[in-house]
Amino acid sequence: MSSTSGPAGATPPEVPLRSDGSAARLLVVDDEESLADLLVEALSFQGYDVASAPSGAEALAAVDTSRPDLIILDVNMPGLDGFAVADRLRSTGDKTPIIFLTARTAPDDLREGFGSGGDDYLMKPFRLEELSLRVSAVLRRTLGTDAGNPRTDDTVTVADLSLDLAAHQVTRGGKTVDLSPTEFRLLRYLAANAGRVVSKQELLKQVWGYDFDTESSLAETYVFYLRRKIDKLGPRLIHTVRGVGYMLRPPQE
Question: What torsion do the CA atoms of 21, 23, 26, 32 make, to the nearest 10 degrees?
């Protein structure tokens, strides 16, 4: 981990609480004992209820016993690595949010992580404050305390793409598109702003809740992954506007 100086202008985030008023539960999974101990100590000091596991197999068992609200999951572990852990959890219907910690930098590795159901990732070495801000943002969203995404019974339609916002279901040309919760939020925001270019920073704020400056290819990687699922079913709907951002619009005649 790098120095403890966080993103410019960042302030320590408030710890999101569970619906019963108790502290949010975190599970730290890392085979590097010194790093795991540091994260447990730092996040516990902030007010979280933190458990840890030193391996992928023990992480799966810990999810059953501690029922965390978020998992901080190292990718590069021997045996069952972080991506495999995420795959197994998602295959059983477990939707616990996951933040990957990874030293891998190749785009294909990151896309593999999102394909495994990850919600975010941080490259090692990272700043503790950066992790803290991201943990808080994910929990505010997933614990249901973020008022920015109210429930609605509306349906959003763009060309032959249809989003049922209440049921969290997506179809294109009558075919069901299987999306993760994060992919759905991203597509919903793009569809709600169809015909308008939205920047990467706007997506990070509106979809991930990151109202702080951060250098991240998160939006770019998720758009790539979403495009593979949506645009393979017909003419391209999701467009990149170089140097600006992304736009979802109907195919032009």
Answer: 180
